[in-house]
């Protein structure tokens, strides 16, 4: 999509778990060619917001428009097919499988009659197409030379980038990343930021949850600050950095 095209427009998202309101009326928009960071303390509702947008959890209230279509209530698989890919905060690569096999898992998910094909097995042509796409995406992120290595043998920063290659196999217009820089060394964070900038230049919209302030301040076009399930404020990095409410609630811990 051309830069500036609205990809995600969520309004009034709400989700409770028992008596706990995890997400309390969140509005969120992401456009093509934009990196938006969702920040806030632990338990603020960031991962739950991701789950609502990707159909992993169902919202109690709110509207979610993706690429112009209302999708609230649709299952995760349907939303993924529309062009939304994500990484999970805690689900990682299968360490014993090769890098290329891990990436191919993402391409598998794109198969049209996915569940049925999974049950019947893939024919060779399809299998070859899936691996060709996986190799394309691995090359796109600059890790082609590691294709045959066990995923678990790569450095953590490279594994994170392999996770992104796997997500890219879905040909997403919108990419959601939950704490992609967590635990990475400075050089690894720089490589990750470079890759995300390249994807942004390719026209993807990127929504990321991140705790590392230096990382997001240098990368995001816009930040959305959450606290106790609600949006505290929103704006470009410079405005957020100097917002008294943010400093008190979050940055000035
Ligand atoms: P964040 O990602 O910002 O750290 P989460 O979205 O994971 O926050 O969690 C927000 C709140 O909702 C937390 O209090 C968390 O304990 C609670 N929560 C999240 N998922 C569930 C769940 N599946 N069942 C019950 N409570 C949950
Ligand atoms: Mg989280």
From TrEMBL:
* Domain of life, source organism: Bacteria
> Where found, per UniProt?
Cell membrane
Q: Where is the ABC transporter domain?
A: 8-253
Give the protein name, as stated in the record: ABC transporter related
